[in-house]
Amino acid sequence: MAQIELSVQGMTCKHCVAAVEKALREVPGVQAVAVHLDSNNATVEGDSLDVEALVQAIESEGYTAQAR
Predict the structure, then answer these.
(1) Which domains are seen in the chain, by residue range?
(2) Average pLDDT over residues 7-11
(3) Which domain of life does the UniProt lineage start with (predicted)?
(4) Does the pTM of the predicted model rise above 0.70?
């Protein structure tokens, strides 16, 4: 299983965290997601993860992201 760390910008509340988590869980291959508001960080675990698909999922919710 692979693990990818993403920096997420634009989150300001628990609703933001929930939106990012939901978007990431919908990406194929994702098995676990942890999003942290205090560090603006998301950790994604899964098989055959596509970093660009993860970033696009976050950006589709109105936030910006990049791989760490």
Answers:
(1) 2-67 (3.30.70.100)
(2) 98
(3) Bacteria
(4) yes
